[in-house]
């Protein structure tokens, strides 16, 4: 009853190809954006913003990047952490080289460096496929981590080999560094993530996205219908790394405030891949759902004992949360191998039928 | 059906998630000391005994004296797994509960918290780890890292080596190998080492151990065999330590010429190598052994009562005692703060003042039931470290034995480096807040 | 520039000629670590061959089995009984994996199964730490009568040091490979395994029980993991950090091909020797510590010429 698409007539191709052709979707997105931009800053505590919302947004952005590559183009990559690191270190160098420039512009620019590096490591993708490619991207991961520590120029020769985020202001308001308020940082992260997600949504429904999906579904056939495989795959690597790079820069500048080579290690890559698969391959919504689940679940599990008044040691809680997260991943995969996004689709289908399911 | 269950589950999880920050208010009349620990992950071998020591001492104070100055200490562990994100999350989760002091127990987490804590006005106590430059109190009023910095440690190691070789002058032409954890922690001492090498004419060969290859060092030790260094110095942590000791023994390197920093001197580091580790040296700044009245009290009030996760034979081990020392310093700082402010329930700003006026003389160590446990500690407004002495211990196959006197660091070499590093940090992180906190005079 | 060229093309070979004993030693160390990498890779290959699952949990199975062994021994179980019990535990694990993960996920895309083994990894990390604690344990090599000490063999005016445990590891690894080869090629189960590897459907249609085969391969991989755990544990200690080592098996895998047992062995040796040679002779040029990525680059270079790995089945693509 509530979710009825019937009767929403389109009279032009333009309207039919709109980003959100259905009225309910438009309303839904508007409500979510309103909540995120207005509701959250008014109500959420600084812990919720700093430790839950910002991380989820940052990781969702990285997951979106990986999803463009793995979910839409079918190229498995385990170098996400390394590409995020490129973005972070590039942004750090840019802030020291151009201290006067608006930090948001620098964050977006650092994505281009990640894109360049990503393209280079995407070169073997024409010959190597599947898990072989995944392991090949591990070379990128380990080589980049090594560079982040062995090239002192990248971290301005700091004795601690880590990058520290200086305080930057925008219109007189501190946006990075310890004095910035969580709400400010949250709003900036949200704006960037929302903007880039919109770009991604448009990319995947346009010509580029369609060539990516053609390559994913069968690259030989795609080649036969005139898609240039190499360009398409490299473009996917570039765009994906751009997103990861921006996510890495945000992670350091607007979330953690400091990073070292180890912040972008192999576990980071695996974590992002987790989110993409649990969320749903080939779904932008899935990237967000996956990030929220994988990041939120351990926090909930850790808080749960105290919430129910049970006293468990923090290490034990951590171990139990590992067990439960592991079990839940398996559970989710069994119940719905196509990810949370698929669940949402099924839910929508049910809503269409409601209240008369058959 | 499945869907319904899932949706319900997700909704429930959401509800719990949203209500997380509300739960757990800290009672007003306690002293809240969060401990960032890691009992899980690849660094647990170093992390567990330290966590136990820190925890047990506070529990003992609560059981024996009813806390500090009559106020109970509320200890809460937060598991970081030695991961920076987790550490920052731990910090954010305790921040609103008015912690008196933060002990990150990881160089990476310390670096992440230094700017934050300075703004939130919570002192960070990183006992001989973290950012060495933070010892400069005028630039880092909220950060404390007594009893010694890594640079102090390196200068003590070189002093010890010089002592064995017959004076600093006879280091000329010697070859020193430096094997280190390839991260901020292991990289920090290098400028000092290089400077000494230039000054005294010895050569330094560096062997970095990547974090992913902590247990795979055979290639590096082959290089050691080729390069034949006269001495090996190690800055290792976690699983890297026992592997290095074993590989050294395997290569046939003279173990009494292999010396680790104070974080490479746990029993867990030497024991797996069996008899091969005999002779291995490491720095230390706390005594080893359970024969101290205060530690006896820990056994009596905490461990015998079953209020601890510590296995009986771990008490008195090096890192356990290190944890105890960490807690002793915090407890003393709180006591100091109580004296300064004449309040029972102090806050984090008071504890900062307490740390800044901290003096634990030999006499005081004795009163605490820990005679000769560590060098006398003295922290001032300008000097948040003190650059205290450390000694060298040797593994005899079963336990650590003290084999040197308390050696003082070469402050004349360390301090210039320290000040320039602090300046560097401040200039790179402009605008860095100027110190506004007044200094207490030292007439307590 | 000339200095760099000298460092790359001339100096290492001068060194090799000048100190042949070190050359032999490097070769030996490379061989030993290669064999140990190969052991981990073998676990991957077994499972991939029979079920098409890229088993990421192999690394944690190594840690888990070794921890079980040492943990049981700490609770007073005699060493050999503990070994037997550990094998039983690995069997139980294999059955549980088949029941809980593989059976419901049959016929799903590879990446989903890959992901499920990630879940298994998390689960086993948590469970292992919950039961045995996060503190490292010392491998009970004495009780298991594993040799300790080393031989010092004089060669070329220098000497080569060979750890007895390393020699034992090489022998045990070779024995395991030989056993597996016999199992695969000469027995009824082996034939069934190969049939399953070729085609699940065809194997099912001729009456081979997929479930049974899966339990068998996971159990075999569990035993391989146990052997690996004992060997690596004896070289340093048994702790969760060992899990990271398992990643080293990945370049071995792509080099050898995911489906070839001899490929795993030869790939392991190439990676092991290449890595040690690179670190030892060329590492100082780049500031050392290049082992962490060198293996992957070696594998990558090989892959560019043979995309299916050295011994992988030829990839035939058609529309």
Structural features, described:
Chain A is mainly alpha-helical. Helices cover 71% and strands 3% of the residues of chain A. Chain A is built from 14 helices and four strands. In chain A, strands 1-4 form a two-stranded antiparallel ribbon. Chain A has a two-stranded antiparallel sheet with strand order 2-3. In chain A, helix 4 packs across helix 10, helix 7 crosses helix 8 (207-217) and helix 11 packs across helix 12. Chain A is globular, with a radius of gyration of 21 Å. The relative contact order of chain A is 0.15. The model of chain A has no long low-confidence stretch (mean pLDDT 88). Chain B has 444 residues and is of the alpha/beta class. Chain B contains 15 helices and 13 strands. Chain B has helices spanning 2-18, 44-65, 84-95, 107-120, 150-165, 184-187, 190-200, 218-227, 240-251, 267-270, 293-303, 318-341, 348-356, 362-367, 411-428, and strands spanning 31-37, 73-79, 124-125, 143-144, 175-181, 203-209, 231-235, 258-260, 281-284, 359-360, 377-378, 391-395, 400-402. In chain B, strand 8 (258-260), helix 10 (267-270) and strand 9 form a beta-alpha-beta unit. In chain B, helix 2 (44-65) packs across helix 11 (293-303), helix 3 packs parallel to helix 4 and helix 12 (318-341) packs across helix 13 (348-356). Chain C is built from 13 helices and two strands, in the order αααααββαααααααα. Chain C has helices at residues 2-18, 20-51, 58-74, 79-102, 110-132, 164-186, 188-198, 200-205, 210-235, 242-245, 249-256, 261-282, 291-305; strands spanning 150-155, 158-163. Chain C has a two-stranded antiparallel ribbon. In chain C, helix 2 (20-51) packs across helix 11 (249-256), helix 3 (58-74) crosses helix 9 and helix 12 (261-282) packs across helix 13. The relative contact order of chain C is 0.17. The model of chain C has no long low-confidence stretch (mean pLDDT 84). Classes of the chains: A mainly alpha (358), B alpha/beta (444), C mainly alpha (319).
